[in-house]
Specification:
The protein has 256 residues and is of the alpha+beta class. The protein contains five helices and twelve strands. The chain has a five-stranded antiparallel β-sheet, with no helix packed on it. Strands 4-12-7-10 form a four-stranded antiparallel β-sheet, with no helix packed on it. It has a three-stranded antiparallel β-sheet with strand order 1-2-3, with helices on one face. Helix 2 packs antiparallel against helix 3, helix 2 (54-69) runs parallel beside helix 5 (116-141) and helix 3 (80-97) packs antiparallel against helix 5 (116-141). The chain is elongated and about 80 Å long.
Length: 256
């Protein structure tokens, strides 16, 4: 048969001795080796970190950044799993760039490891996209911590039958308010009234939305319905005669 035989890829490196600089080619990869006999290992390293592996890493990095921009101000514990999958996606994507999932030899390739790198890349992108969905969901429906914005109006200390009003802005809008008040004796050295004290709480303007017999530090939840703007909760204290107590908001969270 006439014609030229195809030439194998040129692989040639020249170096005068250990510690010398050798420049050569291995296929299409340009090698710069500081130790002549190590050029094959360095060629493999160049191929592992080749530019074709980086786009999936930068895509995962971009998706993680978008997810972070959507993170709500609520308790971190509710979105801890989202942060976890963001970290997993980024770490696995970087490992993919480093070539840790490439087949090591022909035996690995025959066992199907050749399909592992693209599957890892796809999985990382899916996880990062799921993080965006999770952050967006919690931004719209997750718990919103509003303790710092809650305020109590009324006397600094109240007696039996005393009334207070807790006001919280329903922003971001949610359907329920979870509230916890802490009581303290106005004269700690002269009385100990907190253990025997309870209070009732109701949504202002709606006697149907009411809880009774709540103690200091206990948490209760009130449905807000369609209340917009400021949410007011009226509180009535029940304690022993002669007792005076102060109140403070321990926890206030808007939730669906």
């Amino acid at each position: 048969m006439s014609g030229r035989e195809p030439r194998p890829p040129e692989q040639q490196v020249e170096a005068s001795g250990p510690g010398s600089v050798g420049i050569g080619t291995a296929g299409r990869v340009l090698l710069l080796s500081l130790v002549g006999p190590e050029w094959e290992e360095r060629a493999e390293r160049v191929q592992r970190w080749s530019g074709w592996n980086w786009p999936q890493f930068f895509l995962v990095l971009l998706l993680d950044a978008v997810a972070l921009s959507l993170a709500p101000d609520g308790p971190v514990r509710q979105i801890a799993w989202v942060y976890a999958i963001m970290a997993i996606a980024l770490v696995l994507s970087f490992c993919r760039v480093a070539g840790l999932f490439r087949p090591r030899d022909e035996g690995d390739a025959a066992r199907g490891r050749r399909t592992l790198p693209p599957l890892v890349s796809l999985g990382c992108v899916v996880l990062a996209a799921l993080a965006i969905v999770g952050m967006d969901h919690y931004a719209e429906h997750g718990d919103a911590e509003v303790t710092g914005r809650a305020r109590i109006t009324g006397a600094a200390s109240v007696t039996d039958g005393g009334r207070l009003t807790v006001t919280v802005e329903n922003s971001p809008h949610r359907n329920h308010l979870r509230l916890s008040l802490v009581l303290a004796d106005a004269a700690p050295g002269a009385q100990s009234c907190v253990p025997a004290t309870t209070y009732d709480a109701e949504l202002a303007g709606s006697t149907d939305v009411r809880v009774e017999g709540v103690r200091s530090g206990e948490t209760f939840s009130l449905p807000l319905g369609g209340v917009q703007g400021a949410v007011r909760v009226d509180v009535v204290l029940h304690t022993d005669p002669g007792c005076r107590l102060g109140t403070a908001v321990a926890d206030a969270v808007l939730h669906d």
